[in-house]
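Handout, section 4.2: multi-component inputs.
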Amino acid sequence: MQMTRGMKIQEAKAYVANKLKLSVSEIADPVIMTEVRQDLKLGCMSPQAGDAHGIEAKFRIAEVLGIEINCVNKFKNKVGL
Amino acid sequence: MGKIFTRYGDGTPTEMSESELRADLEAGTADAADRGKIPPLSEDELNHLYDIFSSPYKFISVEPGKEIVLTYDGAHVKMRRHGVNVERIQGLQIYEKVMGADTLELCHVDYSFKPIKPMVTFEQPVMEQALLITHAPMFYGAMPNLGLYSQPDGPFPNPSELMPAGKIEEAQESHEKSVEAAVEDIVYIGSCMIECGADGINIDSTGAAGDADFLAALLATQQLKAKYPDTCIEIGMAGEFILGMHAGLEFEGTRLAGLYPHDQVKLVEKAGATIYGPVVNTNTTESTPWNVARVVTFTKAVGEVAKIPIHPNMGMGVGAVPTCDHPPIDTVSRASKAMVEICRLDGL
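Output:
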């Protein structure tokens, strides 16, 4: 959110927490966030089979956070989405 | 309390008494206040630093809720530098999956825009492939490095030879031509990487060659943001003070020579940059408490005026981190905690 919207850290945390329907403290918890990341296919540090990888996760991040991600848009153009 | 363990700015271990610790904290903040013409830390803030340094624990951290994100310069380059023989994309994967990096940065080992220009077509596919298999935001990073534009490395007469010969105007003209060439290179390479899908461009170690170097970064940022308004541009600095190698250069009516971080950030914002990375240098002959008090004083002044996110540089030799190859965690964690809890940071 800092990179795409220029948000300061507290505003960025609140934005992400709101989009994920979590509290600000929960988005810094690795156990909670691994479950959330797996459920929403956002990519995680220790991906299991079936989890989102790389660009797959970025498609979902763009959608869930409501942001434009440059390489996701390039990917869509290339494959005709 | 017995002696308090700490280190000098070169990492050498030392011990201090309570009064020595207090004296060094006060001297560090006074030095920054005097140089930057900014307020020193308050009594409460100095007491907080005192508590941080008198903690008996080897590693300390921030309170829950005060976590910040990290950006990195030359991320994967450190792998090869340390003899870990992985290629760049593998290095980025290790940063993301093993080290839990918040952001990634692809770069060339030379880490300067000028030498990348003739081989940028070799860099672009690496960026495209890296973007496919990672999910953290990806920067492409390099330095303006204006030293590469003067002879014998570049096309323009060397200002460092012209100045001692009394050829002041010729030296300044050389700096000005170097700025034009560097801006063209940064915008060209930045555009190539953004067209490949990069999330941001990190113009790093800015100001290393003085005011002309800083001006090149500001002008390139202005042009890149005009061309790609949604792209993130991070300007990271090389040092705390803009050296007046030209001495007459201005950006939007402000003379660049002599600016400290709290004034630099205002110009970085005017140029349209998204994130600013201030630097405060580590003094190797002073203690870590002295260095931390000094860096916190400078950076707090930045946080109070910055409208954009700030990510102060904290690595070997800057941000009160000791100038040694393996910065000790006791010192790095104390400096980081102090910075995050007293200054209004958005990342490191």
